Amino acid sequence: MSDFLKYAIDLVAVLLLAFGIKGLSKVRSARGANQLAAVAMALAVIGLLGSYLGQPSLNAQAWVWIIAGTAVGGVLGAITAQRVPMTSMPEVVALFNGCGGMSSLLVALAAALYPAALDATGIVAVVSIVISVFVGSITFTGSIVAMAKLQGWLSTPPWMQSKARHVVNIALAVVSLIAAVEMIRNGGSGLWLLVVASALLGVGVTLPIGGADMPVVISLLNSYSGVAAAAAGFVVGSQLLIVAGAMVGAAGLILTQVMCNGMNRSLVSVLFGGALGASSTASGGGGEYTNITSCSVEECALTLEAAERVIIVPGYGLAVAQAQHTLREVTRSLEAAGIEVAYAIHPVAGRMPGHMNVLLAEADVPYEQLKEMDVINPDFPATDVVLVLGANDVVNPQAKTDPNSPLYGMPVLDVQQARTVFVVKRGMSAGYSGIKNDLFELGNTSMVFGDAKKVLGDLLGELKELGVGKK
Fold first, then answer.
1. pTM of the entire structure?
2. Residue 393 catalytic?
């Protein structure tokens, strides 16, 4: 393959990737944008492999490894995409971030161990190797820890909530810096020290972070994987990898800031403040519920039948119950009866950015019904019924009424302003912040206890008995 054709393929791949990332900013275009980005990556791989055709540096054994690795990775990716449920999608995203970090790390290690083979002998290449090793190691171990915590395999040790963890992390950062300087000065010297120290630093920084902050962590790790990829691009001299990594890194950093704004938390407090839930006890955010009103599914159905406007607030509980399709059937019945239905999407609802959007899109919810928090908050006072499904912290009025609450200042959905609020929960457990939700004790709030999928199934049956939605 000629150099001109190789550069042309790379340019097309970069443009397609840029359009793909831009398309991900809108729910309506996200699916097509993701497919466009996949085509871009396929072109990039084809262009890279095509440039090596006929070169004596790649013998038959090398091509066997390349083809085998591509086949194994492709099969595993296809199986994962088909079998992983939406409830586990945050863990998969974290794992993919870790795979990206590991890929960059392996490229940098190969360049550090065999600099002549990859022509990685200049100062730019050495510095790029150092950055790729450092960021790649942190991304890999941090992502694996995040995945394990989301999966419930890991919990935060008590000592990690103390200030002692800062001393350990600072010591690991200093060791990493010393190893990096040694590598720049003396080539490969200090390589394995940098790998180990930065890998442990990734664990030390991620392990104390609580579930409430996981959306921020996942988007930040996504940015890290882009930075590591860009550094690896400098190592192997790939302009495409540099551009793609820079775009992913920048997009992830912007998304991280959006997530922090959505939680009224600074990035520093997320990374060094530990779990949000750890601060709730000290701040008096807990307490027992004393004025709870519960109701049956029948009462909920009767209220919905008389409503003109209904807003659905989805949360992680909806994903856990895998009730999105049942919810769609309920809303179809309401819409057929002339009732206006909308979905209020909080930016940090669920376990990753856009979790609720993807969940509802899977159930064929119309894109125009998905409303962002700033758009839908003014509509709550004119809403007859709000149905909260598994959401907790994002609908807690403490964020606006209690200056002593750890949630104070966090933008939340103003569901309490609606005429009637139904909250579907299995029990009275707190959200990931560990804070009591004042919404549950308000006079216009009724609790409907039970699994979201069963409650919605029963609700659908009651609506049918009432004739809601029948022509």
1. 0.78
2. yes
